[in-house]
Amino acid sequence: MTEVSEILMSVLSTIRVPRPGDRVHKDECAFSFASPESEGGLYVCMNSFLGFGSKYVERHYAKTGQRAYLHITRTRKTQKEDENNSGSGDPPKKKPTRLAIGIEGGFDVEQEQYEEEVKVVLFPDQQEVTSEDLASMPDVVRERVSLSMAGLQAADSVSHTLQVQQWDGEVRQESKHAAELKQLDNGVKIPPSGWKCEVCDLQENLWMNLTDGKIFCGRRYFDGTGGNNHALLYYQQSGYPLAVKLGTITPDGADVYSYDEDDMVLDSKLPEHLSHFGIDMMTMEKTERTMTELEIAVNQRVGEWEVIQESGSTLRPLWGPGLTGMKNLGNSCYLNSVMQVLFTIPDFQTKSVPLTMFVTKLGYGLLSGEYSKSAPDPGDDPSTSTEPRGDQVGIAPRMFKALVGRGHPEFSTNRQQDAQEFLLHFINMVERNCRSGMNPSEAFRFLVEEKIVCQQSQKAKYTQRVDYMVQLPVPMDQATNMEELQEAERRREEAESSGAPPSAAPRAQIPFAACLAALSEPETLTDFWSSAVQAKTTATKITRFASFPDHLVIQIKKFTFGLDWVPKKLDVSIDVPDTLDLSALRAMGQQPGEELLPEVAPPPLMTPDVEVKGILGFHGNEEDDSLYSPLLSPVLDDSTVSQLCEMGFPLEACRKAVYYTGNTGIDAAMNWVMGHMEDPDFSAPLVYPGSSSAPGTTPTESLPEEHLATIISMGFSRDQATRALRATNNVLERAVDWIFSHLDDLESMDVSEGGRSEGGSEASREPPPGPCVRDGPGKYELFAFISHMGTSTMCGHYVCHIKKDQQWVIFNDQKVCASEKPPKDLGYLYFYRRVVE
Questions:
Q1: In 26-138, which residue ranges form alpha helices assigned H by DSSP?
Q2: Does position 565 have pLDDT exceeding 70, yes or no?
Q3: Total-model pTM
């Protein structure tokens, strides 16, 4: 028996064969971004199945005594090694035919071709054992080691298991209307061709209603092309739910849309439904692109957006610390852009974010420069390649993405997401995990003061709330090229009436000063209940900064809704300045001689047979009117509730919108709906303040500890957090708003050292601590911005530009280059840092 055989025999009991459910880390080092493609490869412990780069494997051996590791190295194939290569350029890539990721026919996340080499390495002397070497070893050694090697190679990597690696955008559900669809016996027969819209005569993008056979054009696309929404309008008039797209009917099926379910659906009885109008599926041929093909075309247009990606310029690649690219894991460009910017901010560079080692690992990977190296071209021979490519080896944040997305219905998928929503999601995670000690998200946190002035009594009310981002409106009516836009609209209407293709529309030029003015100008509140006059009246609301953060994030509200509630993106250019002075927007607080509105709650919404004396019910008292009796039965405006329901929103969400806006009309209720659609309890039943939140519960039940901890981390006591949550039925977002609108009430609360209320003299009471915010001058300089390309936050591509050492740098996933013409006018999120004089 050889020396190696003897060593393997002695450690055989520590060599395991992976079983179903075992977590195998064979794509990424636990402590760095080393991978099998990295120099030195990856060592997988054959006992714990953890992966280690060459810098960490000896440390693991020294700590654990584990001697056997599977060493995996991968090298890219060159052109001549690729059998499918045509002989020049990059290897041909299959064109996607399916709106999916990671499955046959979909977008391929990992398109590189590799050759893999595996062998067993025995520490500390790093003796190597190949599969061929095992053939001459004792049977018991050969069988156990071979099974372990084969099992590790066949096992799914844990990074791919944690991450939702496959997304199929074509999976459709059977429509609830399909089985019992009512079809009218109106004698309508549809010819095999020659269709046109019954309203506007359009001859493409046509949809036939499966109830009565009427044909109308589809929805208008974001760029003004497509249809004129006549099929949608007809559904709103008739209520007939299903329509089929003409031109997509083949013997294999067709595009069917359910307006009631607001989605593409399956119709198992489609042949029967089409036959009712004389259409034989077996003889039909495809003449139009399906909705899936249209969406695939949009997702392949990333390379066409030349301005934001600076495609027209020869960009100089950059390398070094803080200049590391990030691999796109399949629509993860939103995450890449946000994290590149965050790790430019000193708070995130120097303060540990206690979310697990994956965040620390990501920060090191981006800042160290260790992975800022040129990626080899798969079509080049490494021995003859001399010029560095723009693409980097970079880092693949698989474990980090799995961590921050775990349990989230959107960020756990491979679908494209809104960078602004992800930024707030990550800040929220940091807040939850930094309840004590240093908190890097404080760099963004600031206070907003809202001043409401009753126009009848001229008395004012002041409230404060915490925010992390300024959302800047886009006043389209302030465009400086209005005449050009109006002329383009006139030409579009002429082309539409004549059937000619529309010409490209100009981009609206909006002054940044106009956006800032729209944010700061007084807002008129109608139907405001004034405690001074004890009636509804008109008021004005003025919003100002009560504090200025170290780093200010500005979101340009490019994504909005049209009059038909169809989401759209505004195509605008805004002259965003390099320096910004917001000092004039500093809140001044109560002015000398200014009277405040009395702290009296508005009357509750009640049925006529409820006496007013029941307002405090079982849980209220004379000092606290925030809780109402569960016996009260608020009257909700049924017409407003019905209008919201007709728009497709859940009934309980509509009831809550009407309740929380005090029956003030459809506009206020709609604004509430749009502002709370992401709430976890959006569709939950309406629970009136002070009533039980569920059958058998009471307001004195235990509160969610994580909600309490979040509010306490902002500088408030446990009793104050408890009171806020009980006043808002344990909804964290509303509790935070409530606590800042009741600061005067909270100051009278007696808080002991342990955070529980105790009786005592007035002199012994100390005012509660305020929220933990930084403050300073309101002067800023731009240091980064994130841009979005595409028609919606749910598709397209994100890149970011960051100013480093007075040089703008573009981070486009794995490409990191010196920026020649940073498109500062087309950004979506802008990041400013305070200028200290």
A1: 57-64, 131-134
A2: no
A3: 0.64
